[in-house]
Amino acid sequence: MLSPKQTLDTYYLEARRDLLEVAALLDRYDEAVNRAGGPADDESRLKVLREAMEVLAQGDHPQPNRTELLLEHFSKIN
């Protein structure tokens, strides 16, 4: 079992890469909105992603179950 520091040291770069991918997706969407002159007719997937980021942005969770929370959250949409 890894220590807290070892956990961060081991997974930090991977998590940073994944967050940059999300940022790139949001930038591409914003650029597409600007080109099209308006948002997509159905932004439900964007809404679900933003809500998921809110879950992750919360401070200390009483239980380490963020993955489970997100899986349940994502199951609400196709």
Features:
78 residues; mainly alpha; 2 domains; 3 helices; flat
Précis, in short:
By secondary structure, this protein is mainly alpha-helical.
Describe this structure in words.
The mean pLDDT is 94. The chain has three helices and no strands. The chain has 78 residues and is an all-alpha fold. Helix 2 (44-57) runs antiparallel to helix 3. The termini are far apart. It folds into two domains: 1-39; 41-78. Helices cover 72% and strands 0% of the residues. It is flat.
SSE map:
Blueprint: H1 4-36, H2 44-57, H3 66-74
Helix pairs in contact: 2-3
Fraction of residues in H or I helices: over 70%
Strand and helix order: HHH
Low-confidence segments, given as residue ranges, are none
How many alpha or pi helices? Answer: 3
Mean pLDDT: 94
